[in-house]
Design a protein that fits this description.
about 120 residues, mainly beta
């Protein structure tokens, strides 16, 4: 199975920027979809953004125009550039990948990285 490792979280003031990165490794034949989810305290995990292997993107309404997702297929890496951050963006951010493991479709998750936006 795949292992997803995230980096780039931290503490930033409102209006600031952060860049999250996630690299997938392990038993992967092809990654179909990569993306980011987040979970704030007391709330359910929610979709932030996804990107397909051909570069088609999708964003939650709350982050559209502020966040940009990108992907390097050769390196199995997905990035999330977060600009104009708001306190309500504070959450643990999880990398997600839907991939094929030589005939078996799987979903992998990273361990999560904390993003805290102070007002």
């Amino acid at each position: 199975q795949a292992q997803l490792v995230e980096s780039g979280g931290g503490l930033v003031q409102a209006g600031g920027s952060l860049r999250l990165s996630c690299t997938a490794s392990g038993s992967i034949f092809r990654i179909n979809l990569m993306g980011w989810y987040r979970q704030a305290p007391g709330k359910q995990r929610e979709l932030v953004s996804t990107i397909t292997s051909d570069g088609s993107t999708n964003y939650a309404a709350s982050v559209k125009g502020r966040f940009t997702i990108s992907r390097d297929n050769a390196k199995n890496t997905v990035n999330l550039q977060m600009n104009s951050l708001k306190p309500e963006d504070t959450a643990v951010y999880y990398c997600n990948a839907k991939y094929s493991d030589y005939g078996i479709l799987r979903t992998g998750w990273g361990q999560g990285t904390q993003v805290t936006v102070s007002s």
